[in-house]
Amino acid sequence: MTAHPKIDPETNEAFAYRYDPFPPFLTYFRVDPNGIKTTDVPIFSIKRPTLLHDIAITKKYAIFSDIQIGMNPIKFILTSGSLVGMNSRKISRLGVIPRYAKDESEMRWFDVPGFNNLHAINAWEEDGGDTIVLVAPNILSVEHTLERMDMIHGCVEKVKINLNSGVVSRHPISTRNLDFGVINPTYVGKKNKYVYAAIGYPPPKLSGIVKLDVSIAEVDRRDCIVACRIFGEGCFCGEPFFVAKNNLEAEEDDGYVMLYVHNEKTGESNFLVMDATSPNLDIVADVKLPRRVPYGFHGIFVRESDLNKL
Predict the structure, then answer these.
(1) Quick check: 285 pLDDT over 90?
(2) Rounded mean pLDDT of the chain?
(3) What cellular component terms from Gene Ontology apply here (predicted)?
(4) Helix H or strand E segment including 79
(5) How far does Cα 257 stand from its chain's mean position?
(6) Cα 36 to chain center, whole Å?
(7) In the 3-class helix/strand/coil scheme, how is 209-277 assigned residue by residue?
(8) What residues pair up with 111 in beta bridges, in sequence order?
(9) Is the dihedral of CA 140, 123, 17, 178 positive or negative?
């Protein structure tokens, strides 16, 4: 199952999938607010096993990425070679399916050459539902992904799909090497303005955090970074989290960015809380930890109110 199910904050449904080295290579499903999993929707229009790491949702659709990185289970079994490989002849594409589809008959695929995203930051609809917008980091030099992490560069892009014409357009949000972008979770599936992303050193070492204003790209093609914090020489962070304040009238960015930072010179690890609205992502809390937290890619923030429901 994906490490990135998407939860609609308004319906409290979780949208997810599993992918497999054998047919069907992709199976879509959702979980209702009561925790009941719906019937599987196998996607047979993916003809070869591919690396599907993330999903995006809008109010009407679920969006999948069929990228140039795929799996080769036969080679892995017969020769003990790598299970994952890169296919330079393959054209990357995005698949769009209605969120409540009962089968894949309404699945539509759109070619997006050169677009290879493992993570999806957010997606939404525009033009009365005729256009889908996806914000995600595109892996440049994808041919080096599996063997030369130091050559990987994640360029955050905004991709627009016109559902009527089938035309796909793209432009960069930032040229900096970024990944692990997060947003205010109450904006999942609807248009948002702010993204918080980690600066690749490259991964898994992340040297800092930036705040992006994606709305800038709509009127000006300049870099959308509006705030930045670098943690210093020998200091690297993990994946960031955005935690919104419990205020119904709060602005989208009214909250905190939280993450772990490890100092390789002193051996100390710290948990940092930063003001998400400040121009320098000011640190408002710095907690020294009794032991190191590995750099690791993914985690989750859980509120005390959620724990009390268990």
Answers:
(1) yes
(2) 91
(3) chloroplast stroma
(4) helix 73-79
(5) 16
(6) 25
(7) EEEEEHHHHHCCCCCCEEEEEECCCCEEECCCEEEECCCCCCCCCCEEEEEEEEECCCCCEEEEEEECC
(8) 93
(9) positive
Comparing CA positions, the residue from 169, 167, 196, 203 lying closest to residue 182 is 196
- Cα–Cα distance between 49 and 77 in angstroms, integer? 15
Tell me how far apart the alpha carbons of residues 54 and 67 are, in angstroms, rounded to a whole number.
Answer: 11
Question: Around Cβ 284, how many Cβ atoms within 10 Å?
Answer: 12
Q: Which tokens sit at 168?
A: 């796909």
How far, in Å, CA of 244 to CA of 231, rounded?
23
Tell me the three state secondary structure of residue 47.
coil
Binding residue ranges for Fe cation: 4, 53, 119, 298
Q: How far apart are CA 87 and CA 49, in angstroms?
A: 11
How many other CB atoms are found less than 10 A from the CB of residue 119? 22
d(CA 174, CA 199): 11
Residue 293: partners with Cβ closer than 8 Å, 6 or more residues away: 238, 260, 262, 269
pTM: 0.93
Q: Please state, in angstroms and rounded to a whole number, the distance separating the CA atoms of residues 61 and 40.
A: 16
CB 240 within 8 A of CB 221: no
Average pLDDT over residues 153-161: 94
Cite the annotated binding site by residue number: 4, 53, 119, 298
Span 12-65, pLDDT tens digits: 999 999 998 889 999 999 999 999 999 999 999 999 888 899 999 999 999 999
Nearest C-alpha neighbor of 137 from the set 207, 214, 189: 214
Helix (H) or strand (E) holding 304: helix 304-307
CA distance 97 to 61: 5
